[in-house]
Amino acid sequence: MSEPPSLPGVTHEWIDIGDGLRIHVALAGPEDAPPLLMVHGWPQHWWAWRHVIPALSARYRIIAADLRGHGWSDAPPKGYDKAQLATDMLALLDRLGIEKVTWLGHDWGAFSGFLAALRAPERFERFVPLGVPAPFNPDRSLRTFLLIAGYQVPIGAPLLGPFIVRHGVASRILRAARARGSSWTDEEVRTYDDVFRSRPWVSVQVYRSFFWRELPKLARGPYDDRTLEVPTTLLVGGKDLVTRTIGPDSYPDQPNLTVQSVEGVGHFIAEEAPDAVIAALS
To answer: Domain 11-280 is classified in which CATH homologous superfamily?
Structure first.
């Protein structure tokens, strides 16, 4: 695998968080500044934050982590359920000696952040999730189910999944989920897609575990009676199909959760509208 992309002011480390798993982190900013954990989603890695790291590193200690199997972290054959991803990130904070953090997450990095915030709110200063519904009162519409099934079932399929991942499904998802009028360069797409082509089992496990085990559990509403204690600002793209049903009034029983829509933006908010992300953390 190639070396991580370079970004001025960023250094790279690999942290052993236990069970032989090394997590890659991109680090920036003063070590004595308030810590900001950045956790990407699929099909990406730490490079998803390249447009916001320069501004945020002026006032935060940046820890941009690669989830297990993503980017330059180790890729074990299992452990891709989202509760485990949350556990990994909390273990990373333990190894770094960080008691409390602001968590900026996108996609699975946001969903695992919700799970971590519900499990260990004392570890959070603030939470800024991007591009995912919160796990409360989930959207149970047939349209949403078909949207999820349309790409998650093929990726999670035992034989089809590895084949389509090796043949560039990540690049197609990247292009399809970005709002019209904005686009990726070929180099940007390759930076993400090449990693997943080389590790097809990661994408298969991420989506097989969610669609067949986690989604049915989520549909039963296990978090509907839980209150999120962490001050949270959820950013959703106005043109993002994943969060199209989410608005300011979606979570009336969650007083600490505020929803902000970023108009004209698709799923990849940190790359399509970095100023909105920076503003949410100001």
So the answer is: Alpha/Beta hydrolase fold, catalytic domain (3.40.50.1820)
